[in-house]
From TrEMBL:
Protein name, as recorded: Pentatricopeptide repeat-containing protein
Database matches in InterPro entries: PPR-containing_protein, PPR_rpt, TPR-like_helical_dom_sf
Keywords: Repeat
Start-end of each PPR repeat: 9-43, 44-78, 115-149, 150-184, 185-220
Source organism per UniProt: Gossypium laxum
Protein's UniProt keywords contain Isomerase: no
Pfam families: PPR, PPR_2
Family: Belongs to the PPR family. P subfamily.
Length: 256
């Protein structure tokens, strides 16, 4: 086409750029992307989405941010794919604040129907940096914006609450999850079991495993190992406490 002096339309450019990005030929893709305008074509939202996704997948996040700002600066409205590529890419490397900062206006605008993948990436990112207030605010907003939390959303929050030993919050979330018609999976239950065992409640963890998980066919090796380890730890502590009582009772501590 170049030899014949034919200038491809933007649709053809997008197909070519998508191919280059899939093959991880990013430098060539960027070179051709920057040559589009010189050839008399203007990149559209699809073009930017392809490029942002491509550079994110090879870890060139500064390029992704630059492309995003260029797109917004031209007055183009990011679509779900462009937002998804940017947010997921940045959140995976811990740049959750930057991801939120760049898409917050798009979220508030309400003109783009965001997928759960975008919300879940932000929720997970904020949970990883212990910003649970922000994570919960995003969960609340996604519901108001017509995007219902899914199993991944609940599991991310369950993982945080159980790791932080916030068992009351975890229990509330678990019940809300069931009321919403979302069936917990083995990961959901294992998070609850982990939380119960880490707060010295192996008996409750065992009952949850037997009465709920086994009944639904969801128990796995992780479930058993977590409970067994907790019971072993409980027995060891009990024996240690008994030894200490005898030690103190016989006055042996005074001879030490």
């Amino acid at each position: 086409m170049d030899k014949l002096n034919y200038v491809p339309d933007i649709w053809a450019f997008n197909i070519y750029l998508n191919l280059l990005c899939r093959e991880k030929m990013i430098d060539l893709a960027l070179e051709d992307f920057h040559s589009i305008v010189k050839k008399g074509r203007d990149p559209d939202v699809v073009t930017y989405a392809i490029m942002i996704d491509g550079v994110c997948k090879v870890g060139r996040f500064n390029s992704a941010v630059g492309l995003w700002k260029e797109m917004v600066g031209k007055g183009l409205s990011p679509d779900n794919k462009a937002c998804c590529a940017l947010v997921v890419g940045l959140c995976e490397v811990g740049k959750v604040d930057l991801a939120y900062e760049l898409v917050v206006e798009v979220i508030k605008g309400g003109n783009v129907e965001f997928s759960t993948l975008i919300y879940n990436a932000l929720i997970s990112g904020f949970c990883r940096i212990s910003r649970i207030d922000k994570a919960q605010a995003i969960k609340l907003f996604m519901t108001k914006n017509g995007c219902e939390p899914d199993l991944v959303t609940y599991n991310v929050l369950l993982n945080y609450f159980c790791n932080e030993l916030m068992l009351q919050e975890a229990d509330k979330l678990f019940k809300k999850m069931e009321r919403s018609g979302i069936r917990p999976d083995v990961y959901s239950y294992n998070q609850m079991i982990k939380g119960l065992c880490n707060t010295n409640k192996p008996d409750k963890a065992y009952l949850l495993m037997v009465n709920k998980m086994e009944a639904d066919g969801l128990v796995d090796a992780v479930s058993y190992n977590t409970v067994i380890k907790a019971f072993c730890k409980d027995v060891i502590l009990e024996r240690l406490t008994s030894c200490l009582r005898i030690w103190v009772g016989r006055g042996l501590h005074q001879m030490w």
